[in-house]
Amino acid sequence: EAQVTQNPRYLITVTGKKLTVTCSQNMNHEYMSWYRQDPGLGLRQIYYSMNVEVTDKGDVPEGYKVSRKEKRNFPLILESPSPNQTSLYFCASSLAAGTGTQYFGPGTRLLVL
Amino acid sequence: QKEVEQNSGPLSVPEGAIASLNCTYSDRGSQSFFWYRQYSGKSPELIMSIYSNGDKEDGRFTAQLNKASQYVSLLIRDSQPSDSATYLCAVRGGGGNKLTFGTGTQLKVEL
Q: Which residues are CB-contacts of A62 (< 8 A; sequence separation ≥ 6)?
C-alpha cells in the first residue's frame, strides 16, 4: 500500500529534550515536506526537500532541523524543543516539486511541557 | 495580507444543496491551485487541482479559477453529511517549490 508513515503519532516531552519525528514514504517520491498545523494559522511549511541531500527552509524553520540522506526518509529534528513547538505535525511527499498531489502522513501530535 | 485567504466558517448548508467555498491569493505569479479536504483528526487529502482559468469538474466537485481576480473556488453539488469537513485551499507560487495553504473553511452539511 502506497503511504507516508510517521512515528511517533503522539509525543509528550519536556523543554530542551531533543527529539526526532521520523517520516518515511514508499512511493519513490522525490519531494518531501514537513508542516505544522495550529488552530487559526493553518498548515505552515517548516522545511522541504527537492531530492536526496537537497533541503530548504519553508515559512517557519526556526527551531527545527531536517536531513535527507535517503529518498524514502525525511526526519524532523527538534534539538531543544520549547512549548511554542507544541503542535500537530504532518509529513508529506509528492512525485516532484511541481506536482500538486501531496500525500500526507497521519500526523504527529506533539506536546512540549 | 495573508498569502492565501479563506473564510473560516463554519459554512452550514442543508443536505442536497450546493456548497460554495472561496479562496483568494496574493501572489500573481501563482501557477497551480489545489483543494484539500481534512476530516477532524485526520490528514489532508487532495480532492481537486486546477491550473488554468475556468471550471474543472470531477463528479460532484467543480473548481473555478480566475487568475485576473486572484480567486479560486470549490463548488460541491448535492452536498452530503459525509462532506462535512474542513476544506483547505493551497496555492503553488511562481517559484514552484512552495505550497502555501489557507487556514481552511469548515463545512457542515445538515440533515
A: none
**B2, B28, B72 from A51: Cα distances, Å:** 29, 27, 30
Give the pLDDT confidence of B71-108 residue by residue, as tens digits.
Answer: 999 999 999 999 999 999 999 876 666 788 999 999 99
Using the Cβ of A33 and the Cβ atoms of chain B, whether some distance falls under 8 Å is answered with: yes
Q: What is the pLDDT of residues A69-111, one digit of tens each?
A: 999 999 999 999 999 999 999 999 998 876 668 899 999 999 9
pLDDT-derived band at A55, boundaries 50, 70, 90: very high
Q: How many CB atoms within 10 Å of residue B58? A: 10
- Which residues lie across from A31 on neighbouring strands? A94
Burial of A104 (C-beta count, 10 Å sphere; 0-12/13-18/19+): buried
Q: What share of chain B is helix, strand, coil (3-state, %, to 5)?
A: 5, 55, 45
Q: Return d(Cα A88, Cα A46) in angstroms, integer.
A: 12
Task: Please report residues of B whose CB lies closer than 8 A to that of A29.
Answer: none
Sole residue written with cell 511549511: A45
Phi-psi domain of A52 (left: phi exceeds 0; alpha: psi -120 through 50; beta: other): beta
- Length of chain A equals 113
Of B44, B97, B103, the CB nearest to A50: B97
B98:A45 CB<8 A: yes
